[in-house]
Structures are given as structure tokens and as C-alpha cells.
Q: What sequence folds into this?
């Protein structure tokens, strides 16, 4: 899997970024994602994610994570045939470092655990998981907790 990570806040350590990259590779393997797939993870501040949340979701407040799935189709879109040799772009995961810090404190666990949680959450959205109903929320949250534990990022 091709992973592109950008820390626009310059607040994360090299170790944190390395852990997120390893986590993405682990998730891809667990979910049987082709090696040629590509995903980007961008770490931003609260102001930036609030702007994206307003622009794309019409919600004028910061959030913790936003995913932009490239493989989802709306009713008006058609599937485009692509060259199999090119990377399969799953999409982009945008994570607010400010929100992650706040939530790590609120939930009384490490920033590393919170960043991992948000990465898994965003990645599952790229794969089509959602939490729009109680059933889909239960399925998604159970899966993300299982993946976090399997990777070794348990609540501490």
C-alpha cells in the first residue's frame, strides 16, 4: 500500500508518523486491500478542519476526522475503467491534531491511541463503513476496536 502522510501542524513526532504509517499498512492487510492501493493522511489544526467541515459537510465547527473516499459513487456518477497497473486511490483522511489532543485528555488515554483511533475510523470510512444507523454504527465501532486491539493500541 502506498501511504502519503503530511503533518501540516509540525506537532507530531517522527515516531507518531511512523506508527500511523505502520497502522495503515496493518489495516490494509487486515482488510485485504490490494498492494497497489493508495491513501493519504493529513494532520491539520482545528481551524483547517473546521473550514473543511463547513465546505464539505455544511457544519461550521471543528471535528476530529474527515474522510474523502475516492471509490464511493453518488447516484449521478459512473464507474470509470482504470488501468490496473495504476494505484487504486482509496482517498484522503484528514485528522485534527487539536481535537485529538483534546479527546485524548477527555478519554484519559494517550495521544498515540487517539491518533490511531481516528486513523482507523477514517480508514474504515474510506472502505464504505459508516455510523448512520445504530446497526452500522455498532458494526463499525466493533470493527475499529478489534483492529486497534489487534494492532496493540488498546485503551490505557
A:
Amino acid at each position: 500500500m502506498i501511504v502519503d502522510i503530511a503533518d501540516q501542524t509540525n506537532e507530531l513526532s517522527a515516531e507518531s508518523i511512523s506508527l500511523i504509517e505502520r497502522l495503515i499498512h496493518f489495516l490494509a492487510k487486515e482488510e485485504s486491500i490490494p498492494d497497489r492501493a493508495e491513501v493519504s493522511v493529513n494532520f491539520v489544526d482545528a481551524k483547517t478542519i473546521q473550514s473543511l467541515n463547513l465546505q464539505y459537510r455544511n457544519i461550521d465547527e471543528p471535528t476530529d476526522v474527515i474522510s474523502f473516499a475516492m471509490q464511493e459513487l453518488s447516484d449521478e456518477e459512473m464507474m470509470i475503467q482504470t488501468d490496473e497497473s495504476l494505484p487504486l486511490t482509496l482517498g484522503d483522511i484528514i485528522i485534527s491534531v487539536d481535537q485529538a489532543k483534546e479527546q485524548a485528555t477527555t478519554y484519559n488515554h494517550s495521544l498515540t491511541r487517539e491518533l490511531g483511533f481516528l486513523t482507523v475510523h477514517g480508514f474504515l470510512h474510506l472502505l464504505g463503513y459508516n455510523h448512520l444507523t445504530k446497526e452500522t454504527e455498532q458494526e463499525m465501532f466493533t470493527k475499529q476496536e478489534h483492529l486497534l486491539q489487534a494492532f496493540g493500541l488498546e485503551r490505557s
Q: What stands out?
A: The longest helix spans residues 134-151. The chain has one domain: 2-75+82-151.
